[in-house]
Amino acid sequence: MRRVWTLPVLLLVVGGAAAAAPAVGGNPFEAAVTLGVFVLLAGVLSPLAFPRSIGAVEAQRRSAVDGRPVVFWRPGCAFCMRLRLRLRMRLGHRARRMYWVDIWRDGEGAALVRAADGGDETVPTVLVAGRAYTNPAPARVRELVTPAG
């Protein structure tokens, strides 16, 4: 649980330190901008930027019923963020309707990803109709989601 927040907290600490120098030097605007950039990065790389994560078993059960994809991800993953942002831009609210599984919080999800990826925990891994797609292009995921969305 703690490691999902390590990077965002570290960014906030570094941002505070980086903003302290301009603040002490008499440049509050530069300090505010610096701190704002670090706060934004911390927010984007935190678990808060993703829909609420559910367990892998529950996600697979729900996916079997309604056909929605299951996306395995982890906080701090640049490829996961890229997929999430591009899906959000193109699909809007339908991107939230996929089942998102944080492999750092769900051991069974991590095991499923390792099984699909030859022992590696490569994310994002998208599971659609029992077939795994490792680090798929956002356009490919949109193709897979559109019929279900």
Automatic annotation (TrEMBL):
Q: Does the keyword Signal apply?
A: yes
Give the matching Gene3D superfamilies.
Glutaredoxin
**What superkingdom heads the lineage?**
Bacteria
- Keyword Cytoplasm among UniProt keywords: no
Span of the secretion signal?
A: 1-20
Keyword tags: Membrane, Signal, Transmembrane, Transmembrane helix
Which InterPro entries does the record associate with it?
Answer: Thioredoxin-like_sf
Which parts of the chain span the membrane according to its record?
29-50
Recorded protein name is: Glutaredoxin domain-containing protein
The organism encoding this protein is Streptomyces olivaceus
